[in-house]
Amino acid sequence: MDKKPISHFLAGGIIGGIMILYSAIIIILDQTMNKSMGWISFVLIVLLLAYFVREKGNAEGNNLKFGDLFAYGFKTTAFITIIMLAFQVIYNLVFPDTVDKLLEVSRQTIIQQQPNMSDDQIETALGFTKKFYWPMIIGGTILGTIIQGAIASLIGAAITKKNPQTPFQNV
């Protein structure tokens, strides 16, 4: 019996759900400022998306070309991006103190890394961060997810076995 291909909406929904669950765990454990957790998130998206691209190729009898597999992965990425963007917006609206926590962590980081900065310079930097918080959240989520998805789509398309049929092979 042939495997039914998973749609890019279903694959994106599964990956998006897993990423939201991962984000919730990070938030609960108060590890949102831990950079290594961001790398784990990156690896998780890449592995999951590459897996779904490979599964798509296998379900189609490995008759898809590289471009078709990449397109599937990128469509899936677009849906993941929408899910993650919605999560970020909802999370930041439900927990508005997130920006204050970020500013406090930023203040401590500046004080540690730039001990010669004056209080006015620190306040200017933090004011810039607060002013552009939403564009950074939205832009960062979109750009970050799309870059991760493009990398994963390339990997998934590259590792999937391909033997596309031409129309003349069936004659």
**How would you classify the helix and strand content by structural class?**
mainly alpha
Outline: elongated
- DSSP strand content: under 5%
Instruction: Round the Cα radius of gyration to an integer and report it.
Output: 21 Å
Spans where pLDDT lies below 50 across 5 or more residues: none
Mean pLDDT: 90
Q: How many separate structural domains?
A: 1
Please outline the major beta sheet. Answer: none
State the end-to-end distance.
24 Å
How many helices? The count is: 6
> Helical content, roughly?
over 70%
* N-to-C order of helices and strands: HHHHHH
Strand segment tally? 0
What does this entry look like structurally?
The chain has one domain (8-166). 77% of the residues lie in helices and 0% in strands. The chain is built from 6 helices and no strands. It has helices at 8-28, 35-59, 66-94, 98-113, 119-131, 133-159. Helix 2 packs across helix 6 (133-159). The two termini are 24 Å apart.
